[in-house]
Amino acid sequence: MLVQKIHNKPYIEIGYSILPEFWGMGYATEAAIKCRDYAFEHDLCTHLVSNIHKENVGSQQVAIRNGMKLANKIMSSDHPDFLLYEIHKKDWLRSEN
User: What's the CA dihedral at 25, 29, 35, 39 to 10 degrees?
Assistant: First the structure.
């Protein structure tokens, strides 16, 4: 997890980098879920984001498996062609019950 500024607003982001030979093995999904759960269980924030390039379909699928939904298309010079996925703690709590 890291703090990411998007449109001059700070967000806690779930991000990851996996070597290509390990893609498709579920490691990114498992890591993303553990980060999400830790952040919400320890009250680190009320929502989390993942900022994903529009052509990175694999990471978009990881975000969706992590309970995230597409929130916004980022159109800034810092993050052109990126999609912002997010999950709110209240939605995570609802899905846990």
Answer: -170
Using the structure block, give the residue that is written with the tokens 């759960």. 37
Question: How is the chain split into domains, by residue range?
Answer: 2-96
**pLDDT by residue (tens digit) across 43-88?**
999 999 999 989 999 999 999 999 999 987 766 566 568 899 999 9
Q: Take residue 7 and report the two structure tokens written for it.
A: 């449109």
C-alpha to C-alpha distance for 69 and 65, rounded to whole angstroms: 10
* pTM metric for this prediction: 0.85
Dihedral of alpha carbons 20, 22, 25, 31, sign: negative
Concatenated DSSP letters of 55-96: T-HHHHHHHHHTT-EEEEEE-SSSSTTEEEEEEEHHHHHHHH
CATH for the stretch 2-96: 3.40.630.30
Residue 21 CA, chain-centre distance (Å), reads: 22
